[in-house]
């Protein structure tokens, strides 16, 4: 089977950069800050494939570039370099110019216009942030939050959007009677579940989960993880799971990449990463787990 | 069906200043289709390491593990890519660890049903029937079927673990001391189940500490020292 999405050499640099940036940053220097010009190499030369119906984990400490990677793929930030190509089977044939006639993969998505990127995001992607404030409008009703996303994906019928919102909230265990309340009235765990409902509303093929359980208390964390596990099976999602919690990764992902100072230091089967880590940093990470 | 040649695995521990631990060295053996090979040797000889290399939980340092897959192609599990390994694992290879590593908050019955549903393409009812039949046979009381195995006794957990691994009838089954925490009665049942599985064509490689058991169930023994 061919990958749904192919990512090659993805990079993000803050600052003007210099010739020595690449040599001065990275895991062996334990920093992503170039000491010659002060640029930050937040994410450097990251390549991987994401397949259908698979959960790929990304672990690493704070500042290793995990969230940057997600923001680049979600088109929130402009990448400094690299390519992202989508397989034809993603079903975006209606977008003109995306695919060349004789190729299975799209043009580099990073080179598209803002409008096209938004179209792709609305049609294919969902994201759940660690901080619900980023993913939700806190003062707008939960149903309205979901409807906003459905509008973006081309829905127009109000009654049908309401129906779909109720269905999703029910799936994510939010009492439907409270769908007209704004998320600011909800607990942290509930907000997170509204965010998941919103992310799933357009039936995405790719779901980005950025530290979704960090900061939730243990029993709530467990319910959110159970929910994600069930939804993955139900919707056949491809997920990119960013977490610094190895337990979360172990539970959700078959394959895992380890990042450090903006680069991928190791990638492999999740059980292999946890039981036979190769890189110095991964060994430290695994040995530090409680 | 499986030919292991000069399999070597070392661990380099960077956090202990690059200390090297030699786990197994130049291990070679062959298992014919439908065979049952026992691995023997003292504690720490590297028996489990070999099994984990076969399942690729450990990355072998050198040597080859030639596996004849169901599709007829021979692949080297020692350096096959991750996706292909996952594919073979889901379709063909089962692994029984010494202890149950539970997914939290999944009931015993669901744990055993899951691989059947995922791999055998049967209906939920049939999967439930097969799973509960297997659990019953392994003497798990039926009122525990919907409980979480984390709360079970050690022996019960291990029987759930075995049920989960054999339920979907893998083509190759790796057994890492599956019976170490079981009483004699349960061991007998497990052996019976393994025997039936072999009659249906499953090839097996196993580690057993009990020498009598080792010799009675396997048809060849490879000693690692």
Keywords:
heterodimer, A: 290 residues, alpha/beta, Rossmann fold, 9 strands, 20% strand, globular, B: 225 residues, 5-stranded parallel beta sheet, 4-stranded antiparallel beta sheet
* Largest beta sheet: strand ordering of chain B: 6-7-8-3-9
Query: What is the residue-averaged pLDDT of chain B?
Result: 93
- The CATH architecture designation of chain A is 3-Layer(aba) Sandwich
End-to-end Cα distance of chain B? 24 Å
* Helix content range of chain B: 25-40%
Count the beta strands of chain A: 9
- Uncertain parts of chain A: none
N-to-C series of helices and strands of chain B? EEEHEEHEHHHEHEHE
What's the total helix number of chain A? 11
The CATH class name of chain A reads Alpha Beta
- Measured by DSSP, the beta-strand proportion of chain B falls in 25-35%
Q: What's the N-to-C terminus distance of chain A?
A: 37 Å
- Overall number of strands of chain B: 9
Commentary on this structure:
The complex is a heterodimer of chains A (290) and B (225). Chain A is of the alpha/beta class. Helices cover 36% and strands 20% of the residues of chain A. Chain A has one domain: Rossmann fold (3-Layer(aba) Sandwich), CATH 3.40.50. In chain A, the strands form two sheets. Chain A has a six-stranded mixed beta sheet, sandwiched between helices. The radius of gyration of chain A is 19 Å and the shape is globular. Chain A starts with a strand and ends with a helix. Chain B is α/β, with parallel strands linked by helices. Helix content of chain B is 36%, strand content 26%. In chain B, the strands form two sheets. In chain B, strands 6-7-8-3-9 form a five-stranded parallel beta sheet, with helices on both faces. Chain B has a four-stranded antiparallel beta sheet with strand order 2-1-4-5, with helices on one face. In chain B, helix 3 crosses helix 4 and helix 3 runs parallel beside helix 5. The longest helix of chain B has 16 residues. The model of chain B has no long low-confidence stretch (mean pLDDT 93). At the A-B interface, strand 9, helix 10 and helix 11 of A face helix 2 of B.
